[in-house]
Structure to design on (338 residues):
């Protein structure tokens, strides 16, 4: 049985190993300050710094956006995107959906005919609607904002990083050739070193031009990212509008289920006593363009009393007939004054 071995280019392997060793030596000498280093022009350095800034902040924005939208690390934004695009059943419920489910089940246990049980069910249903809106919002935000930024990092930025690495290798090769030219002692060695230097310079210049074109493209990607940012804000506005409508409807439903408050009839108008003083009727709330305060004062009923009769008006009697006559002719309520 013959086993065919894969082709192995020994010459290429030796050449690559030699190049790697030469680069390591050159980099070490640069660190020690014993060798010169080819510097890029200021425009190239500015473009390189901008690309590094774009990569760093885009990575942070993607990471922070995902953390804000999906607090649970077990969830992935790609799952929400898939659910939204394919209308697939969620793999797991969100926090609001779990809360709504517990409220609905708890309301059923308390009794949906009671005030608290029925209100609990209503709130639970609203929480489930909020959870559904949240799920759709995460999927939309992932499609219009997070996914394009990730594509930029995994595509263009990876290419730029790769080409910058190749450029650095070509730069090390170039500087190593320059050192060989300076250190060449024989005529033949000088000619060989100069030929290698011309080749290294040509490869370096070509790679520098490729990398520069890629770096200049960063400015155009920012305009694209700006459109994605606008789309993300529009998605947020739509999401919070839906949440506001759900909660406003819930608030009205709960208000209609609330028992009526005690009221007082004052000046042919109903006054709500549940909010405490000052007690205002509906018309008084807008009278004169500003709220008017009303004070209700309760006065005790004054019952007129008969004038006190001085004891001197009654003759002093020593027999029972006079006393009996006075009692018969007096008001029963004034007997204590006799």
């Amino acid at each position: 049985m013959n086993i065919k071995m894969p082709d192995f280019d020994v010459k290429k392997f030796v050449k690559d190993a030699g190049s790697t060793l030469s680069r390591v030596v050159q980099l070490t000498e640069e660190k020690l300050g014993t060798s010169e280093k080819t510097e890029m022009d200021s425009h190239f350095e500015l473009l390189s710094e901008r690309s590094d800034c774009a990569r760093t902040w885009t990575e942070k924005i993607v990471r922070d956006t995902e953390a804000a939208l999906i607090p649970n690390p077990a969830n992935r934004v790609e799952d929400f995107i898939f659910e939204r695009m394919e209308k697939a059943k969620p793999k797991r419920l969100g926090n609001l959906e779990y809360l709504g489910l517990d409220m609905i089940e708890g309301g059923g246990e308390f009794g949906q005919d009671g005030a608290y049980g029925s209100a609990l069910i209503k709130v639970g249903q609203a929480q489930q609607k909020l959870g559904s809106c949240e799920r759709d919002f995460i999927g939309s935000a992932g499609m219009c904002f997070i996914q394009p930024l990730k594509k930029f990092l995994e595509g263009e930025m990876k290419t730029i990083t790769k080409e910058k690495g190749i450029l650095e290798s070509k730069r090390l090769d170039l500087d190593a050739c320059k050192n060989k030219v300076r250190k060449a002692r024989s005529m033949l060695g000088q000619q060989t070193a100069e030929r290698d230097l011309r080749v290294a310079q040509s490869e370096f210049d070509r790679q520098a031009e490729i990398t520069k074109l890629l770096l200049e493209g960063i400015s155009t990607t920012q305009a694209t990212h700006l459109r994605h940012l606008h789309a993300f804000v529009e998605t947020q506005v739509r999401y919070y509008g839906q949440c506001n409508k759900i909660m406003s409807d819930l608030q009205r439903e709960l208000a209609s289920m609330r028992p009526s408050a005690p009221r007082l009839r004052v000046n042919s108008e109903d006054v709500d006593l549940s909010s405490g003083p000052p007690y205002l009727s509906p018309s008084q709330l807008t009278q004169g363009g500003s709220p008017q305060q009303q004070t209700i004062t309760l006065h005790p009923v004054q019952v007129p009393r008969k004038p006190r009769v001085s004891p001197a008006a009654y003759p002093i009697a020593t027999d029972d007939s006079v006393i009996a006559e006075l009692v018969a002719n007096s008001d029963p309520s004034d007997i204590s004054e006799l």
In short: Strands lie at 263-266, 269-272. The first strand starts at residue 263 and ends at 266. The first helix runs from residue 10 to 32. Residues 97 and 128 are 5 Å apart (CA to CA).
